[in-house]
Amino acid sequence: MRAAAAALQAGAEKPVWRLAFFSRLEERKGLKLFVEAVAALDAAALDARFEVHFVGAESRIDMLASGAWLRERTAAWTFPARTQELYLPYPMPSKTDPTTVPAWLHQSGATRPCGSIGLGYH
Q: Which residue spans within 1-119 are E strands per DSSP?
């Protein structure tokens, strides 16, 4: 573990083959933008193990349940896309708390952008 941390501090690249969207599965959390960005990746340049996970509570996008919307949008992807419904307590203790998120999100090769898009809601 210390060697990996030292390598990262030295500027070494960290391979990522598991990308996770970890938030409520809705547009204002950035789901549409995330899906568009992943779809724009050059699949030929990705690690053979590359996979995308959508982890969060179901919502609605374009009048569809977000799970159905995701299946429709990711059907043509050449790498796996998986959805895991996860309802988190509110207020949530921490997105980095190992008891809050699935264990595999803490494993090597995983990264999870979290956040919301500022849409000017007041």
A: 18-22, 51-56, 60-61, 64-65, 81-85, 110-111
Nearest to 54 by CA among 20, 78, 104: 20
Q: Minimal CA–CA distance to 39: which of 73, 63, 69, 89?
A: 73
Task: Confirm if 65 and 58 have CB atoms less than 8 A apart.
Answer: yes
Query: How far, in Å, CA of 116 to CA of 23, rounded?
Result: 8
Backbone angles phi, psi at 83, to 5 degrees: -120, 135
- Burial (CB count <10 Å: 0-12, 13-18, 19+), residue 102: middle
DSSP state of 63: T
CB crowding 46-59: b at 16 or more within 10 Å, else e: beeebbbbbbbeeb
Per DSSP bridges, beta strands 64-65 and 51-56 are: unpaired
- Tell me if the bond preceding 91 is cis, omega within 30° of 0: yes
Instruction: Tell me the pTM.
Output: 0.71
pLDDT band with cut points at 50, 70 and 90 for residue 17: confident
